[in-house]
Please model this.
Amino acid sequence: MSGWLQGYVALITGGGTGIGRAVAERYLAEGASVTIVGRDVGQLEQVVAGCPDPSRMHAVAADVRDSEQLHHAVAETVSRFGKLDTLVANAGVWDYQRPLTRLNAKELGETFDEVFSINVKGYFLAAEAAWRELVETRGSIVMTLSNASFYVNGGGPVYTASKHACLGLMRELAYELAPKVRVNGVACGGMNTDLRGPESLSMQERSISASFAKRRADAPPPPLPLHDSSTDPKDFTGPYVLLASREQSGPMTGEAISIDGGIGVRGFANAAGGDHL
Ligand SMILES: NC(=O)c1ccc[n+]([C@@H]2O[C@H](COP(=O)([O-])OP(=O)(O)OC[C@H]3O[C@@H](n4cnc5c(N)ncnc54)[C@H](O)[C@@H]3O)[C@@H](O)[C@H]2O)c1
Model:
């Protein structure tokens, strides 16, 4: 077998569903061993059982808001696979674009605390749990960022602020952990996943996949240059492989790769300039 991550060991938070699972399966296919971390160990174990080589995938239950559980997940990874090369900080929730003007003060406080504790503190705590092992291997951290790390309206203000915070965290850690550990991000655009809402807004059972399912076949295309591009998380995994690989991106740190259908190059009159081609 050959692949860009032959012999690598990765730990992925939120690795049981969505882009986290797609990255776990892609890393496996590229030759890595992977620990997937999430809250629902039964669901994680099903992913392991269904993967092509269960001896290279390991499920560990942890809530990313709990530092002890994350330290345990790192220790389990090292005990099972011998080292840690790559941390993918990824677990997150969305605020379903709830605007400030539709949140009362109590809801705002609780939503902020919940979304920031998963999306931002969860990345801090995972990095804290992993950095010592990453120094040993001259490894790297890859953070799932978002179009909401750069642009408005990809969430409400709470989600957008949380993803902007992750961009700052990625850049600061790239400085602090250099030269031994590289830190980069993948800023994903809309993907058809199981992304949930905050419990504080009783949105924990809501899944972004329902919004994709509701989209009518005759609806206008999304206002993006690549408005016919895929929303399947599998098609977003390439930058995660590139950034994890020392051989392919060794001199690269502190960078975010956007994979979002071209949000940054939208036209004013027409989203795409080449629709007539
Ligand atoms: N789906 C999109 O359109 C989109 C776009 C840009 C960025 N993202 C980001 O992608 C990342 C992954 O989301 P996804 O879209 O794959 O959705 P998803 O719901 O399929 O994946 C998120 C995972 O995080 C886990 N998780 C949530 N809270 C947790 C906690 N406290 N502890 C441990 N695990 C927890 C969930 O159980 C789930 O497995 C998130 O950071 C999200 O913000 C998603």
Summary: Residues 26 and 242 are 11 Å apart (CA to CA). The beta strands are 9-13, 33-38, 57-61, 86-89, 140-146, 182-188, 256-259.
